[in-house]
Design brief:
The complex is a heterodimer of chains A (about 280) and B (about 400). Chain A has a single domain, classed as Aldolase class I (TIM Barrel), CATH 3.20.20.70. Chain A is built from twelve helices and nine strands. Chain A is globular and about 50 Å long. In chain B, the strands form three sheets. In chain B, strands 3-4-14-9-10-13 form a six-stranded mixed beta sheet, sandwiched between helices. Chain B has a four-stranded antiparallel beta sheet with strand order 1-2-12-11. Chain B is built from 16 helices and 14 strands. Chain B has two domains: about 150 residues, Rossmann fold, CATH 3.40.50.1100; about 220 residues, Rossmann fold (3-Layer(aba) Sandwich). The chains are: A alpha/beta (about 280), B alpha/beta (about 400). The interface between A and B is large, with 42 and 37 residues. Chain A: Keywords: Amino-acid biosynthesis, Aromatic amino acid biosynthesis, Lyase, Tryptophan biosynthesis.
């Protein structure tokens, strides 16, 4: 298993604060700009990076991330290019955990073994694949674990205590709690309910629990971060990219800065999460 | 490419994990998994419950008008000069297609599961109309997702759905066709999973949908098999159906799968032709295995695993995938799937209309075109049963356009 995720959560535990996990789409709005944005994330305060692998049919995503995927595909992004981006990020950042997130088909078509090997070589630490529930573990989860790539599972409000052990069984790195029943970037999560759910999951596992779907502001991040080991922000960052683009959908001189500014702001929120205790 | 082990029976699948060979499965977000498992349980219980069978049977008889007739298409047979051709008249069902068979079964399941809201996707609008119909019949609110392009080209069906009390939500994502409607339906489902039942219209999607849709549509083939034996004293030499997602086809084929003397043919949408890039919707003849909408199956996709839109003159066949059991039946060689172009389908549409006085749906016209290719090569003592899955009223605008006319 790569060690970066574990090391990072260990450090954060010592610092007594939750992680800020940032999601961006690979190749959005173009490969080079996306690489610059990702490279700037750790300095802006991101603790873990999730990089989306664009797919033509993102069934679990709301309009913001759908659009980001469309921009990336329109610009010619492929899984191969995404892996190359990760490799270039790793040249300058050996420590920040990087997780690829997406849907199974592009990986299946790439070839599962070939993908796992290439991802490890590029410096990927973990995978989140939305349409692979535990019932489908033979497809990618087990081959990934065997080679040392973490497989981070989504737990949701519909994952009850009966089902939770099955969901956690082959999960590694951390658990991603989806705070709402819904798609990315929709309703704001209820902090009280999230706290209860995180507690319930922690009753079943020692893994860190990160919470995402619907977290947009520093205040929400601070609130969610009281109970969670990490807060995932995606749609808000992707929207910041969208609103910085010119009419043709191309990056402007504002694009890189827009993401960094929002990440710094969210990082402050996350860092204040436990101070009130 | 995919050489499967030949089974003792073609009717025993899927296995416990919902697979037909390598196809099928449950590729869905975790939020939906508990509900899909619950649906499987509800279905297992219902299919063994005589009360369920009785309720569905009564609706099939008195509401849909089953059994649908098996009709000897005498003039078409003469015109083609070979095998005797029979139509299984699913277009005579209430709502005008086979879609009602599945909708009645699934709405009874939804009621058993205590769901209070129904969602569906639709391409041509036939499944949307059938879903809106059963929702009106049982007093449940209904939201139908339909690609914006399809909303535009199927206006009469959109209006029918609205008359029936359904809300039609146009989907502008992608090319605005059936796959985009299905994505949006899945997004709604994941958001409203507590209250909502997703009434999938075709024999695809995550397990158990492909199996349960097949079982509800299986009445087509069960009736046809009995009717053929009663009318001709023997099984047909061949059965034929059109295949988009493949619900009428699997319903027609299922009863004949273990009759080796019956040849089985599926007609895929060949669109502008198989050599035209992204110009057809024949996923088994022009696609590769992949994972979409909850199952592994043949898909139209590029070399990076991104799904293509495809094209067919028939909105009901304009889908980049196919039900997983068809994918498996193709690999095993039990069923032969041939592409039929838009032009061949239109020619068959006119042929059937002129010789039999039956205006077929453009989807069904693909099956007719396959029959027109097969029949002349067969003897007069041989028989073909075609599933005439829907009536063509909805398509008259499209056909007029193809003739350079405006209505």
């Amino acid at each position: 298993m790569t060690r970066r995720i574990e090391e990072r959560f260990k450090t954060l535990k010592e610092e007594g604060r939750p992680a800020l996990v940032t999601f961006l789409m690979a190749g959005d709005p173009d490969g080079e700009t996306a690489l610059d944005i990702i490279k700037a994330l750790p300095a802006a305060g991101a603790d873990l990076i999730e990089l989306g692998m664009p797919f033509s049919d993102p069934m679990a995503d709301g309009p913001a991330i759908q659009e980001a995927g469309r921009r990336a595909l329109h610009g010619g992004e492929t899984l191969k290019k995404t892996l190359a981006t990760v490799a270039r990020f790793r040249e300058s950042d050996p420590a920040t955990p990087l997780i690829l997130m997406g849907y199974f088909n592009p990986i299946y078509v790439y070839g599962v073994q070939a993908f796992v090997d290439a991802a490890l070589k590029a410096g990927v630490d973990g995978l989140i694949v939305v349409d692979l529930p535990p019932e489908m573990d033979d497809e990618l989860c087990l081959p990934a674990l065997e080679k040392g790539l973490s497989f981070i599972r989504l737990a949701t409000p519909t994952t009850d205590d009966h089902r939770l052990p099955a969901v956690l069984k082959n999960t590694s790195g951390f658990v991603y709690y989806v705070s709402i029943t819904g798609i990315t970037g929709s309703a704001a999560p209820d902090a009280k309910k999230v706290e209860a759910a995180v507690g319930r999951i922690k009753g079943h596992t020692d893994l860190p629990v990160c919470v995402g779907f619907g977290v947009r502001t520093a205040e929400q991040a601070a609130e969610i971060g009281k109970a969670a080991d990490g807060v995932v922000v995606g749609s808000a960052l992707v929207s910041a990219i969208a609103s910085s683009l010119d009419e043709a959908g191309c990056a402007t001189d504002k694009t890189r800065g827009a993401v960094a500014a929002l990440v710094s702001n969210l990082a402050e929120g996350v860092r204040s999460a436990r101070l009130a205790r | 490419m995919n050489q499967p082990i030949l089974p003792n029976s073609y009717r025993s699948g899927p296995d416990e994990d919902g697979r037909f060979g390598i196809y099928g499965g449950r590729f869905v977000a975790e939020t939906l998994m508990p509900l899909i498992l619950e649906l499987e349980e509800a279905w297992k219980t219902a299919r063994q419950d005589p009360a369920f069978e009785a309720e569905l049977g009564a609706l099939n008889t008195h509401y849909t008008g089953r059994p649908s007739p098996l009709y000897f298409a005498e003039r078409l047979s003469e015109e083609l000069g070979g095998a005797r051709i029979y139509f299984k008249r699913e277009e005579l069902n209430h709502t005008g297609s086979h879609k009602i068979n599945n909708c009645l079964g699934q709405i009874l399941l939804a009621r058993r599961m205590g769901k209070t809201r129904i969602i569906a996707e639709t391409g041509a609008g036939q499944h949307g109309v059938a879903t809106a119909t059963v929702c009106a019949r049982f007093g449940l609110p209904c939201v139908v997702f339909m690609g914006a392009t399809d909303v535009e080209r199927q206006k009469p069906n959109v209006f029918r759905m609205r008359l029936l009390g359904a809300e039609v939500r146009p989907v502008t994502a992608g090319a605005g066709t059936l796959k985009d409607a299905m994505n949006e339906a899945l997004r709604d489902w994941v958001t409203n999973v507590d209250t909502t039942y997703y009434l999938i219209g075709t024999a695809a999607g995550p397990h158990p949908y492909p199996a349960l849709v097949r079982d509800f549509q299986g009445i087509i083939g069960r009736e046809a098999r009995e009717q053929m034996l009663a009318q001709t004293g023997s099984l047909p030499s061949a059965v034929v159906a059109c295949v988009g997602g493949g619900s009428n086809a699997i319903g027609m084929f299922d009863a004949f799968l273990d009759d080796p003397e019956v040849k089985i043919f599926g007609a895929e949408a060949g669109g502008h032709g198989m050599d035209v890039e992204n110009g057809h919707a024949a996923s088994m003849n022009g696609g590769r295995p992949g994972v979409l909408h909850g199952n592994r199956t043949y898909l139209l996709q590029d070399e990076n695993g991104q799904i293509l839109e495809g094209h067919s003159i028939s909105a009901g066949l304009d889908y980049p995938g196919v039900g997983p059991q068809h994918a498996w039946l193709r690999d095993t060689g039990r069923v032969t799937y041939d592409p039929i172009t838009d032009k061949e389908a239109l020619d068959a549409f006119h042929l059937c209309t002129r010789t039999e006085g039956i205006i077929p749906a453009l989807e069904s016209a693909h099956g007719l075109a396959e029959v027109a290719k097969l029949a002349p090569k067969m003897g007069k003592d041989e028989t073909i049963v075609l599933c005439l899955s829907g009536r063509g009223d909805k398509d008259v605008h499209t056909v007029a356009q193809s003739m350079g006319l405006e209505l």
